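Ticket #4471: structure export looks truncated?
Reporter: QA, pipeline team
Priority: medium

Steps to reproduce: submit the single chain below to the structure queue and open the exported record.
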Amino acid sequence: MSTSIQDKKEYPLMWWGKDEIRGFDQKLVDNCNLPYNCRHILYRDPRFNPVDKDLYDKSPLIFVSIYQADDSISAFNRPEDLPPQKDVDAGKKAWVLYGWEAPKWFESKKSVINKFSYKFNYHPSSDFIYPYFDSSILDLVLAPPPATLEYKNTMRQKGFNDGRGLAPIAWIVSNCNSFNGREYYVHQLQKYINVDIYGHCKNLNRVWPRHADGREFTDLELTSSYKFYLAFENSNCDFYVTEKLKRTYEAGTIPIVDGPNDYGLFAATHNALIQADQYSPKQLAALVKALDKDEDKYADRLRYKYPKDPARKPTVEDLSPVFVGQWMNRNQSADYRSWPPNYDESMCRLCKMAHDVSEGLETLDPTKRLAPDANCLAKKHYRFTWMVEYHWRLSFLFVALLGMTLFVLYRKRGRWIPRLMTWLLRGWDSGMNYLALPTFDSKSKNSQWSN
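Actual output as written to the record:
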């Protein structure tokens, strides 16, 4: 006789922090074919809520998210925002660090990171893996494109309702001060080719388009109208590839990427991507212009979307074996242990761990702690001249203020130079007296040294 969900015992998985984790609150983990379930519980404050105190005592795993509404890490700003450390040191509980952000946000917080025992994020080396991509990426890549190549070419000339033709490249950006300085590279790229920039940053040059009935274009509709798209990550870290690339695959647009050094697991075909760091801005512009003019070479990079034979549907055989092998949905049996690394598999392992620790079948190792993740390339696109050009107003203001200061000093040199010399000489005399160095007695008849 099978056990119903209602009859199964539940074990809590507690999320510590603010209510931005509301998507997990009360969510049931019940798809693991286990004789028990787990339920996500949002911690509020056991000092004022006895129910939370009881659940906290029963939760061996405490999840801490790096997120907050304003994109800062509030949980790391003050020690009192974290769970009691004594429970971890005693082996009663383990902290699980959760987050999809690149590790550069918290890698400098060594005193906090090494309090955690497990990592739950996108990286394949994590204890529990929650990748941006999953098996659905294959269906998304092979799905019919929302726009034809002819439509893209028409939009290049006609544009949206404003009648202004589109640039070859589009970029939607909201993080205006990225960790790697991607905006500096794009600014240099614009010297050699037009780039339409949408979003909330100062360098945007296009207004988000609307349909004739007033509806805003979706991200997909906008991206699919362009031939190229800048899928630039805000950080250059191993395996950190986000929805930006997924969007271009769905749109049938050639992605120009900048993220990890190795895109092997994320390249749908051998020539599906253009890696920006393999080209200077000038060289990249030349490549895009050449592909923009040559329809055959352009279409060849999108064969997974636009096959030569329109009657033939693309299949996984058209994709890179590495890409397919990484993301193919292997036949998931009832046993979660046979599943590929993904969110569901990780949640089932976490649920089993919570059960085993609670029932005394497994013990927590209080010495197991995380180390800061230093796999990111810091400030990749920071070039002094690029930064000066990008921030030209600030640069101009700085040069103007410096020039004015030097001019004033020059005009008043008759005053400040003697004062400066007097100040230096006084400092010299004070230093000599402090060190008690011998001085030469010029008034002595025998010109002898005196102390």
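Status: closed, not a bug. The export was complete when the record was re-opened. Leaving a note from the reviewer for reference: Residues 65 and 98 are 5 Å apart (CA to CA).
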